[in-house]
Amino acid sequence: MINRTTIFWILFFLLSVPNNAQEIDSVHSNKFKFSPSIAGGQIELTTLLIVTEYGALVDFDLFKIKSSMQYSFGTRISFENYSYLEFNDNTKNKSKSEDYCFYVMHSGRSDYIHFNIFLGLAYFPEIPTYNSANIQFRAGFEFRFNPGTKIVAFIVKGATSFDSNTTYFGLGIAVGYYE
Questions:
Q1: What CATH number corresponds to the domain at position 44?
Q2: Which residues contact 172 (CB under 8 A, 6 or more apart)?
Q3: In the chain, which stretches have pLDDT less than 70?
Q4: Residue 165 in 3-state DSSP?
Q5: What was the pLDDT predicted at 1?
Q6: Residue 18 counted as domain residue
Q7: What is the pLDDT of residue 151?
Q8: From CA 141, how far away is CA 131, in angstroms rounded?
C-alpha cells in the first residue's frame, strides 16, 4: 500500500518537471534572480466528504525565473482551519483543528494554472488528541485553475504533518490574486 509520503513526493516531481524541451532549455539557460515581492494571496474553502478546510494565506516570492511559466522559490504564511466529520453510534461529531504555518515554497504560475509545493512548520494552538499546543513539520501541495480570471479559481489542496489528526485533502474554491 502506498503511504501519504510516497504520494507527496510523486506529486512533487510530476508538478515541478517542465512539460517540453523548449521549457527545459529556457529554464536552464536563465538563472533564478533575487526579486523579493508579494506574489499574491487568497482565501480558500475546500472540502472532500469528511474533511472541510478554510484558510487564508499570503505568498512572498524571493527568487524568480520566467519561461512559458513563472517559476519561483519563496515563502508562505497561512492560517488553516479544518474539521473532520466523525460517525460515532449514529451521531455526527465534528473534530476541529487549526494551525498557523510558515512554509518554504516552490511555485509555477501561468495565466490559468498555478501549482505550489510547500514544506515548513505549523503551530497548532490546540489539537483534540493532544493536551497542549505544539509545533510540527508540515508539507503540502496546491493546484489552482483560474478559468479566465485571476480572482476566482478552482483549487485542489492537501497538507499533512504526518499525523492523521492534521491531514486534509480537498477540492474547492479560492478567491484572491496572484501577479
A1: 2.40.160
A2: 44, 45, 46, 47, 53, 154, 155, 157
A3: 1-30, 85-95, 126-133, 164
A4: helix
A5: 41
A6: no
A7: 86
A8: 28
* Residue 43 is assigned to a structural domain of this protein: yes
Q: Residue 137: which domain range? A: 4-11+33-178
Give the three cell numbers for residue 84: 473532520
CA separation for the pair 84, 127 (Å, rounded): 12
Split into its structural domains, the chain has a count of 1
Residue 73 belongs to a domain: yes
- Per-residue cell: 35: 526579486
- pLDDT tens-digit profile of 134-177? 888 999 999 999 887 778 999 999 998 887 677 888 899 999 88
| CA separation for the pair 46, 158 (Å, rounded) | 9
Q: Which amino acid, 31?
A: K
Q: Judge whether 21 lies within some domain.
A: no
Q: Which triple of cell numbers denotes residue 112?
A: 490559468
| d(C-alpha 144, C-alpha 177), whole Å | 12
Specify the residue for cell string 539557460. 29
Please tell me the distance from the alpha carbon of residue 144 to that of residue 170, in angstroms, as a whole number.
Answer: 12
Residue bearing cell 529556457: 26
How many other C-beta atoms lie within 10 A of the C-beta of residue 39?
24
Query: Pick from 30, 121, 11, 119: which is nearest to 71 by CA?
Result: 30
